[in-house]
Write a structure and sequence with these properties.
heterodimer; A: alpha/beta; Rossmann fold; eight-stranded mixed sheet; 11 helices; 19% strand; disordered N terminus; B: alpha/beta; globular
């Protein structure tokens, strides 16, 4: 399928919902009950680690330990967690940049993780990625126009030269990039401008689904708002579905519809954003929320004992959070909890929540 | 007289000024947050205090007074006795600060022996004591670890322990938690605040994060393009910011905006030190800018007791 973006407003324009799929904007219930746009089923990723020659068993890093998520068309699905929790790995597996050790990825009902490159190509056009570091993700030897044209040449279904030129101009305008940027090189731009170019590169193939891996965390505060607004507007105008990876819960609260909280390679809580902020269920989610600094907040009032995420190399048998959890008991140290519905309608992987002692 | 007074300090790189007349003071035991975006000069302002400006940068104007002594003109040998002793530093990345080929204990005793005359055994005893103070578990064993054997949070605790070795009166912390996860950040900041309170120690916290300052400091200085553009009590500034840039920064935070809508944003980006606009450096991005803003560089003027802003249109902005 091919569609063209609606007339592009300027970066400073106010909020509006004139684009296609506007009814799927934030706040509205995104198509519940449909086939999910993207589905990850039992995804595991294991990396063999270098071992000593006398070691009998090779150490294995378990980056993802069985992740199931379903992303609905039109929603902004956020993944939060601290470094090493596997959120970026999950994004890379979804995009096909990394093959899962076990499990499956389905896009609109089609299994895509085992496709060869030729069969995968139509999906690459529909699924695009925005990376964290705009200094590393743009080719320093290519002009902006060359960078954008490259995506189209590879995925653009034989567009003519004139069509490519038109598409580039259209996309650059939609991200608030002026036309003269086309002939310039990445080093001539600031971080925020580079991230606009990265977003243009992702949008130029008219994708439906975008994996955004910490797209604003390398930027200055005043620039973060500009880029986040650009992503919000692209979503409304194009009916995009986001898989938004971040460590910043205040961004999730503002931008997301649903959120998965990850810890050591597993999803420990899955919930609509409003619910997770109103009534977090999993003890790790609670710890995370209590630690966010806020204007006039109290995150640094209570002193905490040093908390350490256990190593993902041969992780513990029971719940990975048990070593830091105030509610941990004997069962938690031997049996790993799985995601189960909670009284508030969310999903949490916690024995204490299930037993009703977490309230 | 304040413990530390920085007056109209200028740092230049060739013809470009990275600091364009910065003044602030720190009382004993006070915590001051310096906030700004990359390139605003916040680290420069803090490191100029102890003249840690590397070539080709130079202090080209103003003065720094600490406990009656003038630091900006002091000889390097004399300054060395103050750095790490009475004024200590904590940097962003603990892995860059710690020497990877020395154990924690070797680095800690080295610092102590450089500043105090004591035996190695005595230095080691103090080192263990400081590690215990920053809640490093089993400090007597951890002291023989190498930095790579510790987690990021523990490394930053070790860095704080090193800064405490000589019982400093002021700690300068440059983005001490930016490289850390949010739960670890909360641990480290709570620890720093407690240490400052119990030891009557001053803190200059350099950060890009207004929320972190809001939760940890008493006073705030906001920097833009080499100048402090607003300064005062944290609560006063954050509840009623007077400078349009401070208002813009605060207003752009997701927590200040309606969920799901667009964030209020400041247009454009901060100019580099080489291409400052005429007049107020913020004028090209400011919604309130008028002709006069392009003509004069606004001085920092009081708007309330202890609260100052550098904007000629403060009254109109507030209205």
């Amino acid at each position: 399928m091919s569609k063209s973006p609606s007339p592009a407003p300027h970066a400073d324009a106010g909020p509006h919902r004139t684009g296609r799929d506007a009814a799927r904007g934030p706040g509205l219930n995104p198509g519940q009950g449909d086939t999910p746009l993207l589905k990850a089923k039992g995804v595991e990723v294991r990396f063999p680690m270098p071992s000593h020659f006398l070691q009998r068993t090779k150490p294995v890093l378990h980056a993802l330990r069985g992740v199931d998520v379903e992303i609905r068309r039109g929603e902004a699905f956020c993944v939060v967690g601290e470094s090493g929790c596997g959120k970026t790995t999950l994004g890379r597996v979804i995009m096909g940049l990394l093959a899962p050790s076990a499990g499956e990825i389905h896009y609109e009902g089609t299994r895509i993780d085992d496709l060869d490159e030729g069969a995968r190509r139509p999906f690459r056009r529909r699924m695009q990625m925005i990376f964290q570091n705009p200094y590393a993700s743009l080719n320093p030897r290519m002009t902006v126009r060359q960078t954008l044209a490259e995506s189209l040449r590879y995925l653009g279904d034989g567009l003519s030269r004139a069509q490519v030129t038109e598409k580039i101009a259209e996309t650059m305008e939609s991200v608030g990039a002026s036309a003269e940027w086309g002939s310039r090189m990445p080093h001539e731009f600031s971080g925020g401008q580079r991230q606009r170019i990265s977003i243009a590169r992702a949008l130029i193939t008219d994708p439906e689904f975008i994996v955004a891996d910490e797209p604003i965390s390398a930027l200055d505060v005043s620039i973060q708002a500009q880029v986040l607004n650009l992503l919000s507007k692209a979503r409304e105008e194009r009916g995009l579905t986001y898989f938004f990876i971040t460590h910043d819960l205040s961004v999730v609260e503002h931008f997301g519809d649903r959120v998965a909280v990850m810890y050591l390679g597993e999803v420990v809580e899955l919930a609509p954003v409003a619910e997770i902020f109103a009534a977090p269920q999993h003890p790790y989610t609670r710890l995370l929320l209590s630690a966010i600094p806020r204007i006039g907040g109290g995150a640094f009032k209570a002193e905490r004992a040093p908390g350490e995420i256990p190593t993902a190399i041969d992780p513990p048998k029971g719940c990975a959070f048990a070593s830091r959890c105030p509610l941990a008991h004997d069962r938690c140290r031997v049996e790993n909890p799985v995601l189960k519905p909670t009284p508030t309608g969310t999903m949490a992987a916690c024995h204490a929540v299930e037993e009703g002692v977490a309230a | 007289m304040s413990l530390l007074t920085v007056d109209n300090l200028e740092v230049s790189f060739g013809r470009n000024k990275a600091l364009r007349g910065v003044s602030f003071a720190l009382e004993k035991g006070e915590r001051l947050g310096i906030v700004g975006e990359s390139g605003a000069g916040k680290s420069m302002a803090a490191f100029a205090i102890i003249n840690l400006i590397s070539d080709p940068g130079r202090i080209t104007g103003g003065s720094v007074h600490f406990d009656g002594q003038r630091l900006d003109t002091m000889a390097t040998e004399d300054l060395r006795a103050i750095r790490g002793d009475r004024i200590a530093m904590i940097f962003q990345d603990p892995m860059m600060t710690l020497n990877p080929v020395l154990t924690i204990g070797e680095q800690m005793t080295e610092t102590l022996l450089a500043h105090r005359s004591m035996t190695t055994a005595e230095a080691r005893r103090i080192a263990v004591e400081k590690l215990d103070l920053v809640a490093v578990p089993s400090p007597a064993a951890r002291i023989d670890n190498y930095p790579h054997e510790l987690s990021g949070g523990l490394r930053q605790r070790v860095v704080i322990a090193i800064s405490l070795l000589c019982d400093p009166e002021i700690i300068i912390a440059d983005e001490p938690t930016t490289a850390l996860d949010v739960t670890i950040q909360a641990e480290i900041m709570a620890l720093l605040i407690r240490l400052c309170e119990t030891r009557d120690m001053g803190l200059i916290l350099i950060t890009h994060d207004l929320a972190v300052v809001s939760e940890s400091c008493q006073r705030l200085a906001v920097m833009y393009a080499g100048k402090i553009i607003e300064q005062g009590p944290v609560d006063a500034i954050l509840s009623a910011p007077r400078h349009p840039y401070t208002r813009g920064l605060l207003g752009a935070l997701p927590q200040m905006n309606t969920r799901g809508g667009l964030l209020k944003q400041i247009r454009g980006s901060m100019p580099g030190i080489g291409d400052l606009p005429e007049g107020c450096a913020f004028n090209p991005r400011c919604d309130h800018a008028v002709e006069r803003c392009r003509a004069i560089v606004p001085p920092l003027e009081p708007v309330a007791p202890g609260h100052a802003a550098a904007c000629i249109r403060v009254e109109e902005v507030a209205a």
